[in-house]
Input
Amino acid sequence: MSNTPSKERVFNFNAGPAVLPLEAVEEIREGFMNFGGMSVLEISHRGKEFKAVLDETTALVRELMGVPEGYHVLFMQGGASQQFAMVPMNLMDKGADYVSTGTWAKKAISEAKFFGSPATVYSSQETKFNRCPRPDEVKATPGASYLHVTSNNTIEGTQYRAFPDAGSVPLVADMSSDILSCPVDVSRFGMIYAGAQKNVGPAGVTIVVIRDDLAKKSCREIPAIFRYSTHAENASLYNTPPVFPIYATMMTLRWLKKQGGVKAMAKRNGEKAKLIYDALDASSFYKSPVERESRSLMNIVFTLPSDELTEKFVAGAKERGMVGLKGHRSVGGIRSSVYNAFPIEGARALVDYMKEFERTAP
Ligand SMILES: *Cc1c(COP(=O)(O)O)cnc(C)c1O
Output
C-alpha cells in the first residue's frame, strides 16, 4: 500500500463499501481477467473451481474468527438488512431481547416487530446513542429466544468493550462493521452476522456464523429461501451464491491471515484509532460526542464548531487526497472510518490536516 495518497489511490475513509487492501484488489484483478481461461465472473457456481474458492473462504473465516465445532459458516445475500428480518423470522418464538444502540439496531428491532413483540432491554437513545452498555447494564429476559446486539455502531461511532452475559439465552450479534477487527470468543454467541462491505470484502455477500441448533430451528412456516436450515443443509449452494464477492472476500482474508490475523489487526486498529482520538482529546475545536469507554476503533466521529466549517474541512481533505469523511446524513459532523485495510499513514495524514485546519480556521 502506498504511503501517500496518489492520483490512483486516495486515503479512503468511506464507511461502506470501504477500503480494501491494495494487495487483495490486485489479486482480484488477476482472477477478474483470467480464472482458468475465463473471468471469475463467468465461472459456474457448481464447478470444482468455485468449490475450492468457497471451501477456502469458509476455512479462512473459521480459522481467523476461531469458529468452534458445532457452527455453520454461511454466505448469503440481502445484506445485514435481510438478517434483521431473518433472525426473528427463524428464531423468535415467544419473544426476543434487543439492545438499542443506534440506527442499525433500531432497524433490526422494527423488522422483528413483524414477527412478534421484541423487548428493548437497553437503549442509549436518550443520550443520542453516545454509548454501548456495560455488561452489568443488560439483563436478558428468562426464556427469550435470543438477545440481539450491534457490536459496532457504524453511524454513531460506538463499540462494545465487553458483551453482555445472556446466560442460556443465545447472543446474536450484528458485527457488520467490526467483524475480524479484533479477537472475539465465538463460543459466547448463538449467531454472528455481517455484511462484507465494511471490513472484509465488497458489497453483495453476508457472512453468517450460526450454531447448529439455531440453524435447525425455524419457529414458523416460511419460504425455503428465508430458512437458515436451507442454507446450512446446502452449504450456501441452495441457489446461486454471490460468486464474485465471495472470491474477493477470499482474497481479503488471505491478506488478513498474512498480516498476522485478528490479533495483528487489533494492534493496528488500536494504533490508528489512538492517533485520531489523541488529536481529538488535545483539541477544544474538535469534539467527540461519544462516551470514552464506548469509542469505536472502526468509525471515529467528531464535530467542528459549525456546519460551514465542517463542509470546508471535508472539501479541504478531499484536495489532500482524503475522501469519505462526511458524517452520516442523520448525524452530520465528520466520520473517519478506519477499517482493517486502512493504512496508518492515512490516520497520520488526517491528524496533520486536523491540526493545520484548526490553526488556520477563521
Ligand atoms: C452497514 C450496516 C448494516 C446494513 O448493511 P446492508 O448490507 O446495507 O444491509 C447493518 N448493520 C450495521 C452495523 C452496518 O454497519
